[in-house]
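Subject: Sanity check before I submit

Could someone independently write out the C-alpha cells for this chain? I want to compare against mine line by line before I put it in a report. The sequence has 107 residues.
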Amino acid sequence: MSSRTNRKRTVNRKRVLIYAAVLAAGILMILLLGSGITAASAKQEKKEVYYTSVRVEAGDTLWSLAEKYVPEYEKVGDYVETLRQLNRIRREDRLIPGQILVIAYYK
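---
Independent answer below. Compare away.
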C-alpha cells in the first residue's frame, strides 16, 4: 500500500472516531437531561392536599408556621404566600395569639 492510502485510512478512522465520540456524547447528554427532567417533574408532582387548623401561639409567624408544613418540593417563601392567600392575610397584617389559621399539607 502506498503511504497516501495509509494516510487516507488514518484520516478516515479519526473522522469515524470523532463522529462516534460526538454521537456518544450527544446520547449521554440526552439521557442525563431526560432523567433530570423526570426527577424534577417527580419532585413537583403534588400529592393530595389536606387541610388542618392551627392556633397561633405567641411568637408564631407565618414564616415559622410555613417551615413546619412546607412540602419538600416547595420553597418556604412560596408556601408563606400560599398561607397568606388561604387565610386572606395581607402583608401588613400581624398574627394574633389565639387566631386560627388553615394550613394546607400534602400526603
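---
OP: Matches mine. For the report I'm noting this point. The chain has a mean pLDDT of 82.
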